[in-house]
Amino acid sequence: xxxTIILGGIALSVSLAALTATAQQTAPTVTPAxxxxxxxxxxxxxxxxxxxxxxxxxxxxxxxxxxxxxxFPASTEKVYCYLEFKDVKKEAxxxxxxxLGQKEMGKTQLTIKASQxxxxxxxxxxxxxxxxxxxxxxxxxxxxxKSATFTVQ
Length: 153
Known about the structure:
By secondary structure, the protein is mainly beta.
């Protein structure tokens, strides 16, 4: 099909078929990504924090755990979860979760500062509650970084 257009006294003949063919040749092509690529698993990331030491102790003095153990008498008022982190690249937050049997008994949030070696601790009052205890250290995403167990008799 051919059309003639008059512009300011100049006649211009345009072939629509020629324009369509040229447009198809110069149009960019988009190739959709294969469905398999969209379903590929995301590689697991290494933990952002490394705990080099975890201890359960009856006390902390001079930034060191005292009377470290796995069993404490019911008369023990508090126990401490002492932690050492190494090569902390940036400030982060951890949660210390205290569990007696299957029941969560408390949670403490701690800020971990950027440092080659960072020490901190959390305390839990026992109130004479006997049984098997577990302490989980969770990162900001809720992943368990480290755990420790102890018994109150």
